[in-house]
Amino acid sequence: MLAVIQNIIAAVYTPNILQFANAWGGRTISLGGVLVSYAQLLIVLVSLATYGGLLFFAHRTLLGKRIRAVASNPFLAEITRLQPQDVYVIVIAIASAVVCLPGVLVPFELGLQPYGGVTVLLTATIAMIAGGVGSITGAFVLAVAIAVLQNLSLLVMPGEWSIGVTFFIFVIFMLFRPTGLFAAAR
Q1: Cα 182 to the chain's mean position, in Å?
Q2: Which residues sit opposite 36 in a β-bridge?
Q3: What is the rounded CA–CA span in Å between residue 24 and residue 142?
Q4: CA-to-CA distance for 175 and 178, rounded, in angstroms?
Q5: pLDDT in tens, 151-161
Q6: Pairing mode, if any, of strands 28-31 and 34-37?
Q7: pLDDT tens-digit series, residues 99-149
């Protein structure tokens, strides 16, 4: 379905990258000798705030504790009337809202293209699995590590092979640590 939607959008509009004009233009700041654009800085700040907010939500709110209880033992949650089906719908809604953030922010830096989401989706899935299913910290740490390794790989190989680094990391994790780096305690 994703391929059909992407090709319809490309046929109706264009498969070319659409750059957004923003108030920041191409302005950059230097952080420790590294040039960072305002869009990149905004992405990092929103990512850290989202990560902190999700941790707070998961550990300090009643709904977050309910979600963790259903995730740890759905059968017991059903017996104790935590309504796992309702919790699953809430989790999908929260995940959809969180996914909107990079969907809106990343095009400010890289532009918008109909075919741009597949690589990001695969990378996010690998980060979630290799970080440990159920671990917000593991997914966050692995997502950052994968992004850094993909960009560092550009120093030694062509750009079209950088996604191969991601799959190599995934294979290594599946061979030596199939539960993920920060697997949630069950």
Answers
A1: 16
A2: 29
A3: 29
A4: 6
A5: 888 889 888 88
A6: antiparallel
A7: 889 888 888 888 888 887 777 888 888 888 888 888 888 889 988 888 888
Write the pLDDT tens digit of every residue in 3-39.
Answer: 898 899 899 988 888 888 777 767 889 988 888 988 8
Give Cα separations from 36 to 41, 49, 110, 121 (angstroms): 7, 18, 13, 24
Number of Cβ atoms within 10 Å of the Cβ of 49: 11
| CA distances from residue 2 to 15, 121, 158, 168, 184 in whole angstroms, order as listed | 15, 11, 27, 24, 30
CA-CA distance, 67 to 1, in Å (whole number)?
Answer: 29
Q: Which residue has the tokens 């191969």?
A: 164
- Name residue 30's beta-bridge partners: 35
Distance of CA 12 to the CA centre of its chain: 28
The pLDDT assigned to 92 comes to 95
E-strand ranges in 25-104 read: 28-31, 34-37
Please report, as a single letter, which amino acid is at residue 87.
V
Instruction: Report the distance separating Cα 151 and Cα 143, nearest Å.
Output: 12
Q: Are 146 and 126 in contact (CB under 8 A)?
A: yes
d(CA 82, CA 122): 32
Q: In this model, does residue 49 exceed pLDDT 90?
A: yes
| Whole-structure pTM value | 0.76
Q: Which pLDDT band holds residue 50 (cuts at 50, 70, 90)? A: very high
